[in-house]
Amino acid sequence: MKQQLPSKRDYGQRMVTNASHYILMRPGYWLLACLLAIFTILILGINPQPAEATRHVSLDLEQADNGSTKTITGSGSEAGSHPAASEAQEPVTAEPEGEWHDVTVKSGNSIAYIFAKLNLPPQQLHAIVSQGGAANNLEKIYPGQKLRFLTDKYRGLIKLEYQIDKLSKLTVTRAGEEFEVGTTHKIPERRIMNASGTINSSLFIAAQKAGLPDNLTMELANIFGWDIDFALDIRAGDQFTILYEELYLDGEKIGNGNILAAAFTNSGKLFQAVRYTDLGGKTDYYSLDGKSMRKAFLRTPVDYRRISSRFSLGRKHPILNKIRAHKGVDYAASSGTPIRVTGDGKIIFRGSKGGYGNTIIVQHGTKYSTLYAHMSRFKGGLRKGSRVKQGQIIGYVGMTGLATGPHLHYEFRINGVHRDPLHVKLPGAPPLNRKYRADFRKKSAALIARLDTIRSVQVASRK
């Protein structure tokens, strides 16, 4: 039996095998291998973030086709990252960048026109406005207002911001292929102010001297307008005192709020009213005993210069030249002056009616009816059977029929009998619900006490 001697190659392989076995058996080797593997994974796993950019564009709609100046701000490699780091990173495909457009609405602009100028698909505008609700504000934009659009060339509109007024902002945001419409409202600081005055010639002049804006003067007249005719009943020496709100945002006055309480002395008679909102959300002005200041009927249906003819059963007709009862009141006013229905009801006649000319008759329940004659034209959309609300415009002053000049002839009937509109006792609106009376007395007490203090100072200063 022959025995083969080992060669040098065999000795070399055996030595390598033994060495490898020796090394693999040592724990330190495994620790080193693990550390190297972890380090390799960390190096390979680093993935640079894609760069992002937003463009801000101030858009002049009249020069939109001529280009505009863009200011770019951003983050990532475009916003000041280290050059060496940028070179080390592999290029990454970024999402389409957004572009802000600041738009100032000009005369004649509509939201559809602005969308077209920004090359935004009309289908996107339709998807927004068809939601109704808050989105309807976009169809009411007017010159001077500002809108901001965030767009890109692939998706069209991404975001829209519209400052409706100083307190309300509308936002449209893309959500996939749809759009979400929402509004945010800032709550202003409300400061209670007071004003008082004595009338020498007119309410508006006295209110201006007291520092009241015209809108609050009109509100004051509306509060007491069912009891006082501010064209006929005002006397020198009449006084008023009101508590009202001023609205502030970030320390800056942005407007006036509501009249909270008011007192008016007319020919020595005191009228007082307090604004109150019940737990059901209904707001109205009430006298101190909880009766509504409103009446079922307005005292006058039109803003007039003078009463040209009063209620009379023995008046000589200016055209027919014979004694003929005048069963209403004529209010002289300029042609085209709006005529407002004095109470809620239903139109039972609309058309030409002999000497009355263009006439509307409104039935108010089963007991009352009112007539409005000599109109130049009717308000559009109204016909026989139409329901109307107190204060709604139903037509315009004219001189159709037997009339010597532009005026409104107004009649008031109770159970078919003509009554003098200037002196008839008007039915009241429903009083405050009994279940709210205690809350009303509690909340109104402080306001009335404050009014009385101001009035006392006013009387003392006159003396």
Tags for this model:
463 residues; alpha+beta; Nuclear Transport Factor 2, Chain: A; Glucose Permease (Domain IIA); 3 domains; ten-stranded antiparallel sheet; seven-stranded mixed sheet; 22% helix; extended; disordered N terminus
Characterization of this structure:
The protein is α+β, with helices and mostly antiparallel strands. It folds into 3 domains: about 50-65 and about 95-185, Nuclear Transport Factor 2, Chain: A (Roll); about 190-295 and about 435-460, Nuclear Transport Factor 2, Chain: A (Roll), CATH 3.10.450; about 305-420, Glucose Permease (Domain IIA) (Distorted Sandwich), CATH 2.70.70. Helix content is about 20%, strand content about 35%. The protein is built from 8 helices and 22 strands. Strands 13, 14, 15, 16, 17, 18, 19, 20, 21 and 22 form a 10-stranded antiparallel β-sheet that branches. Strands 2-1-3-4-5-6-7 form a 7-stranded mixed β-sheet, with helices on one face. The longest helix has 26 residues, at about 435-460.
What's the number of structural domains?
Answer: 3
Distance between the termini: 151 Å
Number of strands: 22
CATH topology of the largest domain: Nuclear Transport Factor 2, Chain: A
Number of helices: 8
Secondary-structure content class: alpha+beta
SSE order: HHEEHEHHEEEEEHHEEEEEEEEEEEEEEH
Radius of gyration: 40 Å
Provide the CATH architecture of the largest domain. Answer: Roll
Estimate the strand proportion.
25-35%
Q: Kindly provide the name of the CATH class of the largest domain.
A: Alpha Beta
Shape: extended
Mean pLDDT, rounded to whole units? 80
Query: Helix share of residues?
Result: 10-25%
Main sheet characteristics = 10 strands, antiparallel
